[in-house]
């Protein structure tokens, strides 16, 4: 199962419709976020009433919220880390004792079964949580956060329930020995924390702290979510700057200095919190020099010098990493399509997860069993779970250090064990096996990230090359497969540099990552982009497709547009909103000059959510006159309803009320952005991307509405192999 | 002299007008860049003709240009570094020999005179170059680049002549022993290189390579200049990621992933080039592990651990750094006003520079002379220019290592010399003196940066605190005064981390810099912002002032607006353009339906520069009919004239031609962005900032032009102590 639950499927759980995978689709079920149309008369009045002191208080609250986000994200990371360590430690201890018992007397198959059963038990818990309770918590959550920051609302992605399932799920899947990491889910967790804290309430828990009400709108919430994602990266890798860059690289379209500093602050606090509590847990309170969930250990400066003749070598490794990444993505693409078609029931998904867990255990066991790479057990190689197996006393099985361990520890061993700790055969087999395991695992119905597995592949393979070329080049090629898979460059470089704690390797790391990205891009998209595309998300890229200058707003827009009059009959509004076939979210408001032939002119734009609040509070002209409703509708009422506006079906409007009128003047955005119909697509695109628009009205030269451009209209166009292509809209 | 030459002064060199310094002004002399209004029919036709392959070629050219920018910037940095080292080395050698000769026999005043004369000679050359040839090359150039990236065209800022003067100027001022660094000017140099390379020609040298003609417009050029600035930072500090962040923090408003990667690429290449050539120069070809002009040396991992009880200490030092920075800025502010009033003639400026050079030499000499801090000359303290003076044999004067050295070397010594190398008295005196010297120096008519001086103050003072508190905390507080002065946070953190080559100190550095910034902001603006403000530049900040929601486009716009008809008489156009009192740069184009009472409707926007090209090529309707001009005007003609469009006075239009008509349809932007007059200032602001607008048409509900908002209209408003304030427009 994918990270977006049951795509393109009937609302009633059942067989999905035949999915035309040859066609390219754009789903209509994802709503867009709106950063612009909140500005109506009520809002402006509030802003005008506010003193400079009020704005300063708001600014301080923003900083406080970012601090809270950092602290909570750090605590969650801490909890995950300790739980994983405890559970995995317990598991490996039990299995190790069992293996040691049976090594001499035979009957190691019992150990294998024990191993597989323990793994499956963990994965079962995690899989059930994810598949039955909250399917959106599957996977790393990075694509979902990426979509959210891009402006697409993925249902339930920032809910408390998602967070709980995600945290338990990731603990189970890492403890269950799957080829996964716990870093990706931290980013999602940070986002959820941010979305929760910034709203000052939890809708799930039905608690409203009456705080931060000003921030209950899409623009502000999105800013905090980007801070949360950054805090997540920062906690995961101990890389605050990397976190900020990640947020920017994946999410931001409009760069704002103050926002960046707040994001930076949240990241700092998050690393610091994690660091502080882990240092206490590890019995070294106050030692803050080892931040992050993952820790590559310390690199001595002497061992990391490099020379210019190594540069071509790095470039080759980068290119190879790109190829590997493209292969990984292609395999995973086909696997994902297979899963969408055949593995869509929750019980099937759990069974697949169990299968993967058992196979992982079996493969690991077999590899360890048949490996005869014995290494002396030195003082510094005193890994906790080193297996002796059939090695002589004082020796350990080298293959086991790679498999019989959490992936983080394996990466560290690969970086730091002295030359000669591994023989090439072991490394080659390990790389190969782990590659396929990781590829199979990504996309299962478990919470898990792909960062550490790809890094582990890179580390094993980098070490292998190092041995083969008789030179020891530990860090730089490591990121290559990862860059080949996910195609982040700048933020990944900084994350790698911050995580290794050494800048010297910065330049080669950059070089390797960049080349891996270029090579990978040539063959296949990034993994996250593939999954986003398979989910038919209306994702806006950075720029309009290059060859789209001949398209204008006229071709792109939806037309005709359902408009409302400034003073509109309630019945009409209810009918339009109830019409399931259209399902529009924004409506231009027009004004008709009475007794005149002039066409109706655009005077504003109102959102479905705003209309629903108005209907719920029965803000009708007649009632206002008869003084039945004393209280004027305030901005607070909109904020209380945000973000879970009730559906129109839940609002009861009597036959009498249908004849009433509603005055939209105060509630609509009175100055929506408009473009003439000849505006080229790139210019429209730029408006959407830079301002975070959801609807853009197309008007003619006397200000009549002639069309409406939405995000989905823009996301339809993309540059394919044969020039500009247009995606179909899904029928669901 | 300031970095913007002779502000608010008559064009004829003479006494400046009485500058009303109590009033706040906005100068009209700076033009804005335009990222939007290039898109006319010719442009669209070209874009539509272009194949996907063509776009790919463009993309490749962009990468090639970024590579070239990186290489050239790296080479320039290399040249500056080697020249400074040679010249300064020669100077210190001569003086050292002289001092040694006179120490025993008396007559050290001759040495002092020699020192002062040598310094003055260097500064004289640099000062004359700057004051007489190219005053814009004064200072670090960072404020100018900041303005350019913000969208303000500072005259002559990216010209070849500026680059030459800047490079020679900075070599002279560093070799002349002033309290300056060579890093700031590198950023400006990178920007100039980028502006030149990306245009594929040099107007100064009158060479057109017929390359990259597509990039001859403001949007593209700005993108390359930001890459150049990043390459400059990268070369200066060996900090490619820091360079990217600097560009973003100071310049970018619209973040684009592809652009960021190109900037990153340019930065990488620049560091690499510098590194490569310097490694050859230093006789260690191929050792690439020491990038950057400044090099803090290697920090051993053991010496940099820190504990949480040090955190409050760091915070205090950050706060102190912020205070110091605010003091620096205030002093420099008053000094700058003094300079604007009284030191505006080039010869006076040169004399001031000479005075500072002489005083710097004298003060340094006096400090060294009266210092009796002798330290044993160990094997590792074998600094090239250590002075023995009155110390015993095998000892050296400790004050001299700080003063008798280039500032970069002094910083390195302060970081790395063993505990006990300095006594607190020496450090305290040095910090104090250097603080005032640096403050006096910034703003002189020499090319020089403030980065290294402020870092040196920070290092000396950090070391002092370290001694006093008996703990050795080398790096983290170092940046505090700098952050207090220039108020960059994120990029500075990364630069510091990259330059020290050690990530462990990342967190405390961030903390210190952030607190220094917050404290500094409380008292005084950043140094660059002060200078930008004193120059009355129409600089747009990140967001509209918080309390500006009650302002609408109606209050902000200029009105009435000079419009042109779509087919307009040449005489009218010439008259409007020649009218010096208005000096508009953009004109809405309207169309009047013939024989109708309807008002004229907006149908486009045309720029002064476009009209001038049209007039120059005599694109008149009558001539086209009579087939006198065979060739249709092409985009190329606009590109050839960019960016130095001739003034209207240089274009001769005969009396007959004045009666001709010009058809603007093809050349105007047919779909300018418009807003209704009720749009709030923050929304207008956001449009300007996010889209890089220069003109925004305000239209009423039948699409009549009722006003025009320009960047200057927006830059007028700012949040002062008593709420929203409006700047006056300068009368020059």
Report on this model:
The structure is a homodimer of 732-residue chains. Chain A is mostly helical and 732 residues long. The first copy, chain A, folds into 2 domains: 25-29 and 59-296 and 305-533, Orthogonal Bundle (Clc chloride channel), CATH 1.10.3080; 553-729, CBS-domain. In chain A, 54% of the residues lie in helices and 8% in strands. In chain A, the strands form 8 sheets. Chain A has a 3-stranded mixed β-sheet with strand order 8-10-11. In chain A, strands 13-14-15 form a 3-stranded mixed β-sheet. A two-stranded parallel sheet of chain A has the order 1-18. In chain A, α2 packs parallel to α9 (257-281), α10 crosses α16 (480-486) and α15 packs antiparallel against α16 (480-486). The longest helix of chain A has 54 residues, at 52-105. The radius of gyration of chain A is 28 Å and the shape is elongated. Mean pLDDT of chain A is 81; it is low at 1-23.
